[in-house]
Amino acid sequence: MNSKYILAIDQGTTSSRAVVFDKKINKLSSVQKEFKQYYPQPSWVEHDATEIFECTLDVMEKAIKDAKINSEQIAALGITNQRETVVLWEKATGNPVYRAIVWQCRRTANLADKLINDGYSDFIRDKTGLIPDAYFSGTKIKWILDTVPGLRKRAENNEILAGTIDTWLVWKLSGGKAHVTDYTNASRTMLYNIHTLEWDKELLELLDIPENILPQVKNSSEVYAVTDKNVCGIEVPIASVIGDQQAALFGQGCFLPGETKTTYGTGCFLLMNTGTKPVTSKHKLLTTIAIGINGKVEYALEGSVFIGGALIKWLRDELEIISSAQECDILADSVKDSNGVVLVPAFTGLGAPYWNSYTRGTIVGLTRGVNKAHICRAALDAIAFQVKDEIECMKDDAQIDIPVLKVDGGVSVSDLMLQFQSDILGIPVCRPKNVETTITGAAFLAGLAVGFWNSKDEILEQWEKDKTFNPSMKEEEKSKLYSRWQKAIECAMSWKE
Question: 68 CB contacts (<8 Å, ≥6 apart)?
């Protein structure tokens, strides 16, 4: 084919990124742009959906320019996205009716609590694989419908559309020609039945959400529409949509049951491929859809850490004790350990396996000799401890030993953190040469949809290992450190206003 390249978008929590890949998954260009975060109240997090779209257009345009290619040479566009964040907009104008409510936002914790207290936990979990929580999209959609004056009536009159960020981008990029999502994003809404593969009418009734505002659910790899020339200046097939963590699972080549990855992004997300069989967790892990191709889905177990890389950003932007993520790593490496400090980054509550919306961040073990290097070390340790919590639960649920953990994401550049991760887990941790597996997964799926790549085997040939970290910590030390972490968690969970 004449088309030689894939353009992929990673629309994340704090930034949008565009990358142009060739057939050997070499990056011809990579452009990233941050956008504003809004915190109107404690534990509330919002985005400007219009700003996200404009940011996406900017990085797409610059990535094509920087790659020194013509848009006609792009075979397809792939999109991966922050998952549970929701937008509602006017069908006629394409204008949002409220700011996007971000997955981190806890404003609907009371709605989730009511569902639990009313006895709906098992009902929801049996259908969706999820635990009632403010994290997911369903309560966010309900809150917007209930809060914006006159919106519910407009929604019932087919004037309003809703969707996660992938849906919003496809709608805008296609000039309003496609209102779609994929199986993976749908499975994160708390409205989608992961067994029947349809929007669940009983759940929609429970949350009072009209089905007509929701998108059509499609495969993670197929052509949904083309980008509108009047919008983007180019016509390119939009050929993949997938939630960011599922994209990373695919980008890591975790195609077989039992294969597991952790992405250290804004949050940390551990996914284990369980194949065609959904596994129900005894430890409050999530059962989710890993991918959908040709109308068939595979499932995954997932553990969610709300604050991962965002912890480093907090040290930089709010505490201002570092000027960059690299400085955090340098400072942490300058001390032998955290000097007894344990940092629990529960800024927006705790995810799996605790699922406590009211827990708040805690620093314990402070003494006069503690300095900012120890705080930085404790921050990196905290990321690894949270992953440890999840992986122990996951092994028990799936009854599978994980021989190696594949890792990716921004924080995975830290050798120090990954060595500690291997030590505290007691298993090898493997980092690929390409740590941007999220956006790579989206590119692979877009390429598969248009015949740019022909098979998963061809994709696996592109995966290369950078470094494997092997455990070296003595069992006694490992046990001592993990026990201290669990004690700090208890302290954090005792805080409630």
Answer: 28
Question: Which listed CATH number (1.10.1740.10, 3.30.420.40, 3.40.50.261, 3.40.50.1970) goes with 5-245?
Answer: 3.30.420.40
- Domain ranges across the chain: 5-245, 253-432+464-497
Domain 253-432+464-497 adopts which CATH fold?
Answer: Nucleotidyltransferase; domain 5 (3.30.420)
Give the pLDDT band of residue 286 (cuts 50, 70, 90): very high
CA distance 95 to 307: 30
Per-residue pLDDT tens digits for 20-49: 999 999 999 999 999 999 999 988 999 999
Q: Which long-range contacts (CB under 8 A, 24 or more apart) does 122-128 make?
A: 123/202, 124/190, 124/203, 125/280, 127/193, 127/194, 127/195, 127/200, 127/202, 127/203, 128/187, 128/189, 128/190, 128/191, 128/192, 128/193, 128/194, 128/200, 128/203
pTM of the full predicted structure?
0.86
pLDDT tens figures, 225-284 = 999 998 888 899 999 999 999 999 999 999 988 889 998 988 888 999 999 989 999 888
